Amino acid sequence: MSTDFQRARTALGARLLELRTEGGLTGRQLATRLGWTQSKVSKLETGKQTATPEDLAAWAEGVGKPGAASELKARLLGAESSYRSWRRQLAAGHRPRQDEGIEQSRRTSLTRAFESARVPGLLQTPDYARALLTMAADFAGSPKDTKEAVRARMRRQEVLYEPGRAFEFIVWESALHARVAAPAVMAAQLDRLTGLVGLDTIKFGVIPLSAPLRRTPAHAFWIYDRDRVIVEMINAEMWLDDPADIARYEKAFAWLAETAVYGQRAQRVITAVRASLGRN
Known about the structure:
elongated; 434 Repressor (Amino-terminal Domain); alpha/beta; 280 residues
């Protein structure tokens, strides 16, 4: 969990405590009034549990200050502007998150991305994307709107061909080997990558498994201009806009780029991986 998010959650908890004491209630009394356990009240006040909008509305009613609900929800939104849980993002399926990605790409001139375990979404074939999104929905237990989500991901790829945009992608070779789909789907995906190498708007690099690393590929991340970095984790996405954070990820990208191969050398790596599909 990010320090910024925890700090914001702790501040929200302090405000909840303030409202409760102003209302003349003990933690036990408020818990009884709301039908909660006393431990839930304590965890919310100490920042050990993240409140839901429903929790905050109930709290405001419970302490006799329903008008405070909008303030509390605004505080929660501010905390989650950098920490976006998948549970909430995918409550209505993957399509809304894909639509948000379309808007993010349209606002960006230079997109830089590093992926260690899969092909970047902007470069995926429909079948490869379908396999990943189905897998993600199964894991998250979210609504399966896979068909609509795949269509949205393909629409997002239109930015690759728009003038005035540039893209730099680096993938660790392991991402090309990861069998997230049937061999035929993997082969088609690798063929597409081969065709994209050398496209004017795209700089595509591969870090060979045998390459000496100046920095280990800790996790995937995307840098949008110099405005935002998005880091995907198992339980949430981190949306970072602090200049110091962005500079650190730019440095990581530059170091990874030093060990990547491009052009014909990248094509040779992709071709070798594709050839291995028939041997396994």
